[in-house]
Write a structure and sequence with these properties.
The mean pLDDT is 96. Helix 1 packs antiparallel against helix 3. The chain has 98 residues and is an alpha+beta fold. It is flat. It has one domain: Alpha-Beta Plaits. Helices cover 37% and strands 30% of the residues. The protein is built from three helices and four strands, in the order βαββααβ. A four-stranded antiparallel beta sheet has the order 2-3-1-4.
């Protein structure tokens, strides 16, 4: 069953963030994941959540998403991101196909 990683990011250093983004993209592809949303326009429909940037990733399943997050290639991306952005990230299991 598919799993999704939802990320809210606050970028403080756009130039340094570019290095993270390139490494993250590579690590996601290596894990068989894909972007469903990547920093496009957002609109608050309910509540007061107004994230400046949202990314949604899809992986084959929860275990694959966890392996991606813990992978050496994504650890390198996180190291490159240090001081350039703050992230909030959740992993959510999808629903079974109907």
């Amino acid at each position: 069953m598919a799993a999704y990683v939802v990320v809210e990011s606050r970028v403080s250093d756009p130039e340094r963030y570019k290095a993270y983004a390139a490494l993250a993209e590579q690590s996601i592809a290596e894990a068989g994941g894909r972007y469903l949303a990547r920093g496009g326009a957002t609109e608050t429909l309910e509540g007061d959540w107004a994230p400046p940037r949202v990314v949604v990733l899809e992986f084959a399943d929860v275990d694959t998403a966890r392996r991606w997050y813990e992978s050496e290639s994504y650890r390198a991306a996180r190291a490159a991101r240090a001081g350039a952005a703050e992230l909030q990230m959740v992993l959510v299991e999808g629903v079974p196909p109907s």
